[in-house]
Amino acid sequence: MPAHYPISSVPEVGGRIPADSVHAVSVSLPRVSDVIGYEEKISETMSRIQSGYPRFVAHPYVTAIVDYFQNLSHSDRPCVVVSSDAAAEDLFSWSGYRGKVHCIEEDGIVAFPLPEDESLSSHLLSYIQHTGCLVSSRRAEDFLLARNLISSVQKEDRITEQPGQRVSEEMARLNGVPSKDAILSVSGMNSVYAAFRAMHELQKRKGRTVWIQLGWLYVDNIRIVEKFTEDPVVIYQMDSLESIKEALRTNKNVAGIITEVPTNPLLQTADLVELYEVAAESGCMVLSDISVGSSVCINAISHSDVVVESLTKFASGSGDVMMGAAIINPDSAFYSELRPLVERYVEAPYISDLERLAYRIQDYEERMSRIDSSV
Fold first, then answer.
1. Where are the domains of the chain?
2. Can you give the pLDDT at residue 5?
3. Which of 90, 130, 337, 361 would you call most buried, defined as having the most Cβ atoms within 10 angstroms of its Cβ?
């Protein structure tokens, strides 16, 4: 079974967590002053950062891929990479940037130079960050190795036999749904994006375009709502069902409600049972992000149309692999149309990441049960 990491192994400020993996997605910030230095981008702190969450800190292997494509592009504009041609197409469609003519693709990775318009460049970069369509460090590792740009790969435990099926089946089992309804993606943020885009697209066909943001959510979840809708309704009082009913009465074109169970960072939770009943009566959807609570500790799928979870955190348990899951409620009134749309928008995980998570997820339930009993 997967090994556990003792507290004594936590490295000094800026060090990788786990310290022995080049694929670490966590960073050691042991003091409050270190956290402040990181958030305020103080050079003394930032100069020591060796790793970090990939949407905020570029992995050295991904940076090497960008350099590789930069040389091929013959452009004086900086290049960026995304995880697939489909991701690039969505990006260009959303932004209006005619970047396809400048794209370079190798091994499914797509690179293109940013436009000279700095405002548009900023929009493109924020889209990549908020939709999570990134190239993983293991995918970058294999890309670089194939071109003799690195000489070795990280030694780590993996399960190579049907890893994607193993992870999907475990997530499905925990949520009590068929395995085909546990759809994996490259990151938790990509799962949020895919679910939200699918739900919004489906409801937009019916003239429903307004979304209710219930609670103070994780900032990038808020950004997804802001980017892909107009004039969302924000309700901060999680226990005010009357506020939700009033919002539904005054906004007949509400597409859905997005919330977190519990919210990050305030740890508030709505009454999902009542919320889902009210939503169903009005014909709108419910999207629940359970990344803080986990599929082990939270039963949200019975009271949501889609549940999303970042598997990078508790399911991995080691902070060295990025992945997400969108769980579709098979009893949802929207199921038959919704499921294929979610599949359309997700970016599929890379095989090596699936192999690593298939190994790490083996004791997910046992680990979370211990955590659940101690809080």
1. 7-46, 60-146, 163-374
2. 52
3. 361
